[in-house]
Amino acid sequence: xxxxxxxxxxxxxxxxxxxxxxxxxxxxxxxxxxxxxxxxxxxxxxxxxxxxxxxxxxxxxxxxxxxxxxxxxxxxxxxxxxxxxxxxxxxxxxxxxxxxxxxxxxxxxxxxxxxxxxxxxxxxxxxxxxxxxxxxxxxxxxxxxxxxxxxxxxxxxxxxxxxxxxxxxxxxxxxxxxxxxxxxxxxxxxxxxxxxxxxxxxxxxxxx
Length: 208
Prior knowledge:
This protein has 6 helices and no strands. It is an all-alpha fold. The protein has one domain: Phosphate transport system protein phou homolog 2, domain 2 (Methane Monooxygenase Hydroxylase, Chain G, domain 1, Up-down Bundle), CATH 1.20.58.220. α4 runs parallel beside α6. It is globular and about 60 Å long. The N terminus is likely disordered. Belongs to the UPF0111 family. InterPro entries: PhoU-like_sf (IPR038078), Put_Phosphate_transp_reg (IPR018445), UPF0111_domain (IPR052912).
């Protein structure tokens, strides 16, 4: 029973980590839908609280990992996945920060599509991690990883489309710079989700 509790802690912590990311992604979409530039400082504060909570949860996991000899999967794998999940929350927060720093005043259509892709990636990761303690027999995890890979590819195409539209329709060089950076960070969110999915897939393959 004691070992099961230790096992549950790590898998529960992974699920907790991606839930922070999912909440951030939903917040991002809400910000874009009802965009008001003057509200960005308040949004940044709220999102930073989520990111800080994610950091605290990660540190708790690392502290426990440092004290334990027996772990459900390799120690390096636990640390690696924890870091990749943490990257997702960081990148989503970076989007809002860029919008504020570059004083974005209106939202381009492709940003909504990007936000939906990011939400989809986070939700598929949440699905995969909810069954992670059953990784040796899970049929849910491989399907979720396929979906994440597909969404990341969609994000790549969207990035190309967004920049093409930006450079062919926008005449303000400052706005071009602002959205180039913002779209770049949106695309990095999709990449971060795929990186986490790749770590999950590697762990499953190496332990099956």
